[in-house]
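Researcher: Next sequence.
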Amino acid sequence: MQPSPIIGQVLYNPIVNWTITLIMLLYGPALVIYLIFRLIGFQGYMSLFRFIEGKSVIYRLDPRVKILLSIVITTVAAITIW
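Model: Next structure:
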């Protein structure tokens, strides 16, 4: 079944495409944050970022080493995905 010519004109119109892109760019991240707040509330959101002291090796590492380790792991994952 072929789409009607009117739908094709609307979907492939550059102005419509730019409008949809700008809406997604501007409201996309805000929508995610809004949905998180609606699902778990403010206290649940704050508990995601609460520091809990631990005794493992990762907790005892220097913060610079943790940042470097996360960059290395992210780079290796990005390279190996291709």
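Model: The mean pLDDT is 84. The chain is about 80% helix and 0% strand.
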